[in-house]
Amino acid sequence: MRWWRITTARELLVTGIAPMRVGGMVWCVAEVLGADELQTALAGLDGWAGDPSGISRTAELASFPGAIAVVDRVAEVAEELDHHPDIDIRWRRLLFTLSTHSAGGVTRKDLDLASRIDTIIREAA
Ligand SMILES: C[C@H](O)[C@H](O)[C@H]1CNC2=NC(N)=NC(=O)C2=N1
User: What is the CATH number of the domain that holds 43?
Assistant: First the structure.
């Protein structure tokens, strides 16, 4: 479990946990999802599978430069969200693995990032 300082309304939406105001700042806990909650959430994503310890999906792009362009775009989003995927690159095939390292498992932050990765892959196809 880990406390996140919330600076935007969007971040609040992502944690899905009741915010707490402490010393003029807003904080939320990033909590590892339960197995059932996770499976329900995975059904709304494109090709992700896994368990509360981590989720992953692959993507095959048309070319190696095409795959690297996707990685580049994912890097931008990861910086924006301050949440970073593990990425395995093999020619034009990518494997993304997500978990919240500080929480020790999959949280809403991973679901949010997964959905953003889906959009990037869809746009690249
Ligand atoms: C300080 C900063 O918020 C943390 O180091 C962030 C950066 N990106 C991260 N990404 C992931 N996947 N898990 C984390 O716990 C994490 N922590």
Answer: 3.30.1360.20
Q: Is 5 in the pocket of ligand 1 (CB under 6 A)?
A: no
Span 8-54, pLDDT tens digits: 666 665 655 667 788 888 777 669 999 999 999 999 999 999 999 99
- In this structure, is residue 14 part of a structural domain? no
Q: ipTM value of the model?
A: 0.94
CA–CA distances in Å: residue 48 to residues 20, 22, 25, 51, 108 = 31, 36, 34, 10, 14
For residue 59, give its domain range: 33-124
Kindly state if the Cβ of 2 falls inside 6 Å of ligand 1: no
pLDDT at res. 30: 65
Distance 73 CA to ligand 1 centre (A): 18
